[in-house]
Structure formats: C-alpha cells, structure tokens
C-alpha cells in the first residue's frame, strides 16, 4: 500500500500519463477511422456517378438494380418502406466536353428514400458537377445513420436502385471520442480530488496549529495523511511537548527561586528594621518590595505562557463588571460601557432571500465566552492599572457579535509614537511616559502588557493599540469561535 507523498505523486503521474495517452489514442484513432470511412464513401459516390453516366465499372461494395424506363421517379413502394418515409430529391448537371469534366453535359437525377431522415442537401447544390455532388451526397449518407435507399438515373434513361454497405449504420466505425473525453475527465477529477485530499491534510495541520492557541486545545495533533505529513506532525508534537516541558521547568525553577528568596528577604526586612536611619531603612524596604514584585511579575508571565488554567464557559460581561466594581470601591476613576447587543446578526441563507437576519437575544447583558477567566481577569486588571498609572483614568468598553469580543480600555494619557506602541508588548519594555506630571518616576517593570499579549494569543486573539485624540486605547480582541 502506498503511504508516502512521493509514491502517490509517482503513481498519479504514471496514471495521468497513461490516461492521457489512451484518451489521445482513442480520439485520434476514431477521427482517422471516420476520415477513412467518409473518404471511401465519397469515392464510392464518385464511382457510382461514373457508372451511371459513362458505364464505368461498378465499385466492389455497391450493387445496381435496374427499374426500367419509368417516367415517374420511384417512391417508398420501390424502396420497400412505409408511405410515411422521407424522400429527398435532387439533380446534378455534369459539364460538357468544353467544361471541367466528362459526360456530355448530362443531367443526373437522384432520389434518396429514408425511413426517418430528410437529408440536408442545400449545400450540395454548390458542388461542381455530378461526380463531386455524388461524392458529397454519398459522404453525407455514410455520416448520418439512417440506412437510406438511393435511386438515380442519367437524363431520361432508366432508373437504377443503388445498394451499398457503406451507407448502413452497421458500417459506421465505432466513435470513441466521447469515451476519450469521459476518460480524460474522470482521470482529471480523480487526480484533482486526491490532490485536494492530500492538501487538506496540510491545511488541517495548519488549522490545528492555529487552534492550539485557543482555550482547551492542548492535545497532540492527530497523525493523518501520507508519511511525510505524519513525520511533520510527529516532529511538531515533539516540539510542542518539549516547549511545554521547558515552560513547566522554568516555572518550577522560578517558583523555587521565589520560595527560596522568601527566607533571606524576611531576614533582610528584620535587619532593616534595626537600622536607625529612617531614610536608609525606607530605601532598604523599597528595594525589597521591588524585588518581590519583580519576581511575582516574572512568575505571572511564565504561568500565562504555560496556560495551566482549564478553559470553561463564563459570562465575560459579569467578569468585567466585577473587576470594574473592585476599582470603583476603592475610589479609582474607572468607568464602564457595556455594548453587548440585544440582537445579533446571523448568516445568510436561501430562506432569507440573500439578506442577513437579526435574532433577538434573551439577555442583552449576558455575554457567554469560553476561555480562562482568571487569566482574562489578570489581563483586564493589567490594562486598567496601566491606564490609571499612565493615563489618570480608565474607561472600559465591551462589545461583542457572533464572531468576536472586543474589550477596550481608554485612558487620558500622553501621546506615544508608533514605535513605542509596538515595543510595549515585549517583556521589560516601557514607554517614554514613565514619569507623572510632576516628573516623579512611575513604578513598573514592563511586564504588564507582555502578560496581556500572551493571554490574548492563548485565546486566539490579539492586543492592539490606537492613539486617539484624548489618549491611548488598548484593545483586546478575542474570537468567540
């Protein structure tokens, strides 16, 4: 059984070439067979006219039966057909000795009797002479399947009944041209279908890698497809497993360091309390606080990368309101606007006559979302803290539709250049506005937005920034699918 992509490619190349050669051979052989058949019929018609007009030898595959010198042309009775049969009558004039042919300017009368077909002879009138006209007529008789009976005579001579196997339906060669087209079409569809199936495996791999950043996607990718794709999936699964183990080890090391630093930090605090110089003692305590806060920030960033919290469904509007209420209870300038729609657009369907419909929702303030609530609470808190520290206030706006949720935090801070905005999501990177209006440095380590960007990426979303006239807007965009 073929398992590799190379094997399938080789097989389909051979099969495609074979099908193409066979289809071309069927087409060309059928075309040549019909060309030879019609050429024989045309020559037979030419020789028949020469026999009637000049008494030349009769072709081998043709027979003439004399019907006497009847003034009236024969009809369906002489042809042995029903009165409803179709009769096609025509005449050819062969030029005299001074023209381009022989026959002394004789007129050749022809009558074709068919059980079901009236022959298209309008084009035959343009043929020069009886020989060419009979050749064209015989070619049409051989081309159209009707088993006709042919009567002809020269001027006022006797009527002759001509019989030939070339004009019968059984004499027509088999036409494989439609079969050749069907064979080529089937081969092409099979090749395209299998190629699409192969491509679907790689597309599923890319989709699986993309969805792994969404909540709940932690299992290994399924092994499917050809050997090359399975080897790629195996390598990717191994790489992801190593990354998870590496992050887990880093978190364990940082947790151990944080725990081990607790004891000496406590001793340092006790010893700092014995310092009589109040200013020096305050500086010692401030440095210890910054050290502890920095370790905690790094631990939080590592936990966000690991995403150990399980995903579940919760109300994002309620979570946002709870965070905002906690800040309001302490008198912080934090406001909120909930723009969750009371109705939601649906996809178009044939029953909607091409127009999207809107469906009313039972509760406009209930916004269900599947994700990690503790991580999103930390992300929202970091955005609010940044807005309060650098922009004096935070105005939260939450809106959603069927595809995504957009959480905006607008501050009233100073303008930042685009380069600073792009650097804000890197660890330990801070903007240029790190001092307040009085020039006092604002505390921070540059990890808050890095944590927010990591949490957004784990939910399949992104963190965006927009400089507005009244301050900076941080936008957290999360997909709902």
From TrEMBL:
Organism of derivation: Roseibaca calidilacus
Major localization listed first in the record, in broad terms: membrane
This enzyme's EC code(s): 2.7.13.3
Topology in membrane: Multi-pass membrane protein
Gene: gltS
Subcellular location: Cell membrane
Keywords: ATP-binding, Cell membrane, Kinase, Membrane, Nucleotide-binding, Phosphoprotein, Transferase
One GO MF term: ATP binding
Protein name (Swiss-Prot/TrEMBL): histidine kinase
Domain of life where this protein originates: Bacteria
Reaction(s) catalysed (UniProt annotation): ATP + protein L-histidine = ADP + protein N-phospho-L-histidine
GO cellular component: plasma membrane
SMART domains reported in the protein's UniProt record: HATPase_c, HisKA
Stretches assigned to the Histidine kinase domain: 256-481
Statement: the UniProt record of this protein carries the keyword Phosphoprotein: yes
PANTHER family the record matches: SENSOR PROTEIN CREC, SENSOR PROTEIN RSTB
